[in-house]
Amino acid sequence: MNTTVQIKKMSERDCGAVWELQKKCFSVPWSLESIREMFETEGYLNLTAWEDGVLVGYIGIKAVLDEADITNVAVHPDHRRQGIGKQLLEKLLRQAAAEGVCRIFLEVRTSNAAARALYEGAGFQIIDIRKNYYEKPKEDAYIMVWDFLMPDTAGET
């Protein structure tokens, strides 16, 4: 089921809402100050998903030259499994590719099968494991990559 949401570029006035969403989604959320600092640092692109004026999701990326790292993907727990994460990821991949990004990396908890399925469905591939990457609880992360130049991933968006 796809939920109709408005996806737009995150603005500085969205920082408080993003911070509140992070606290609902992550055991170790970023600080409000860290979220605000993204607007002072070159290379960040953050998209937000809104439904009836309420923030229901966001995704962020930090690009350097032609490579980037996904910094966060969050969908409000009450709005999961409605296609919001997929919509955010697809729009982010299109925008990043349009801006010259050829390769995108991310880390995902090894236990997070739903997120891994989302990323694999978009063309990301597991390339390695980062030991003890996450805290609360301590857990390994899969390192995944999406490569615009690889035939297996480029056509998936």
UniProtKB/TrEMBL annotation:
Residue ranges of domain N-acetyltransferase in the record: 5-149
GO molecular function term, any single one: N-acetyltransferase activity
Highest taxon of source: Bacteria
InterPro entries, A to Z: AcTrfase_RimI/Ard1, Acyl_CoA_acyltransferase, GNAT_dom, YpeA/RimI_acetyltransf
Keywords, alphabetical: Acyltransferase, Cytoplasm, Ribonucleoprotein, Ribosomal protein, Transferase
GO cellular component, one term: ribosome
Record-stated family: Belongs to the acetyltransferase family. RimI subfamily.
Protein name: Ribosomal protein S18-alanine N-acetyltransferase
